[in-house]
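Marked as duplicate of an earlier ticket. Keeping the data here for the record.
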Amino acid sequence: MGILVAVEGLDGAGKRTIVGRIEAAATDRGASVSTLAFPRYGESITADLASEALHGRHGDLRESVYAMALLFALDRAAARRQLREALTAHDLVICDRYCASNAAYSAARLGGGADSEVVEWVADLEFGRFQLPVPDHQLLLGVPPDVAMSRANGRAETDADRPVDSYERDAELQHAVYRVYGEFVESHWMSSWSWADGDDAVAAVLAQL
């Protein structure tokens, strides 16, 4: 079985870029690599429903923390077979967002931390009931909320397909999510963690091979 690494961080933190850099570096070392990005917008109906809710559709759906978390979890559950096949066929599987994202955003929206009831609920749902593979390592990109939000807003100005949603516009929420992520790192939630950016982030993942 291959190694499963989840790359976490705020919107605008540069997860897509780092995943690409890790993939290239691991491939240069002779490792076979597969990548997946969550939510799977455009591929998964539950992910698309969540996105639409975050952009003002479907009434008060986005007001429910548990409903939104369930939609994102169902998106990953539908990719369980794909994930397991990738782990069987490759040395390294990298997820651009994974279950920790769901737990961090849910806890932050409810004003809690890493020890919140909703964090335990997400873990039981995704790793227990949906039997998603537990990551071997998780990487938190160390990009502060203000920087990440500025990048996300700049990206939206140049890419009409990536407008900011209600989570991304909420500065208080973004700071709270980053705090919960930090608590995950300190408590080693579900696996070992690294908290880094740039070259250090790439090196942290390569060290797992």
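See parent ticket for discussion. The longest helix spans residues 171-187.
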